[in-house]
Every structure is written in structure tokens, then in C-alpha cells.
Amino acid sequence: MLYIFLAICFVLPPCVVAIRRGFGLDFGVNLLLTLLLWVPGAIHAFAVVLKSDGTKSIA
Predict the structure, then answer these.
(1) Residue 57: helix, strand or coil by DSSP?
(2) How far apart are CA 35 and CA 53, in angstroms?
(3) What letter does residue 12 receive in the DSSP assignment?
(4) Helices 2-11 and 38-51: crossing angle, nearest 10°?
(5) Could you report the per-residue pLDDT of 1-58, keeping only the tens digit for each?
(6) How is the chain split among helix, strand and coil, in percent rounded to 5?
(7) Are 42 and 7 in contact (CB under 8 A)?
(8) Of 36, 34, 35, 37, whose CA–CA distance to 48 is shortest?
(9) What's the sign of the alpha-carbon dihedral 19, 27, 13, 57?
(10) 42: how many CB neighbours lie within 10 A of its CB?
């Protein structure tokens, strides 16, 4: 399952962050990074997926 999330990080970084962490601060930061320039959004999504244990964030 982890490999699927990592593959989707290339295409839709905000969607992966929303699935893994919910619509909180991480999603907002990732959406902003993706809209400004795609590469930082993808890097942030990778970091969230690799750091996340699957639980949703409160923030």
C-alpha cells in the first residue's frame, strides 16, 4: 500500500496528503506548495507519507 501512495505522490500530491493526514494544516501547506511549483508539493507529500503512520492529524 505504501508503494501505491508513493506512486500517487508524483501525480496528485494534495490527494495523498488528504488521504493520509486529513484536510488540516498539512493539506493546506501541500496544496500551496503544489500550486506554487509542483516539485515542492511532491517532496512534501513524500515526506508526509513516509513520516505518517496512517493516523489523521488534528491540526
Answers:
(1) coil
(2) 26
(3) -
(4) 170
(5) 778 888 888 899 999 999 988 999 999 999 999 999 999 999 999 999 888 765 555 5
(6) 75, 0, 25
(7) no
(8) 34
(9) negative
(10) 19
At 57, list the grid cell: 492529524
Q: What is the DSSP string of 25-43?
A: HHHHHHHHHHHH-HHHHHH
The continuous run of DSSP H or E covering 50 comes out as: helix 38-51
Determine the residue type at 3: Y
pTM of the model: 0.81
Query: Hey, what's the cell of 40?
Result: 515542492
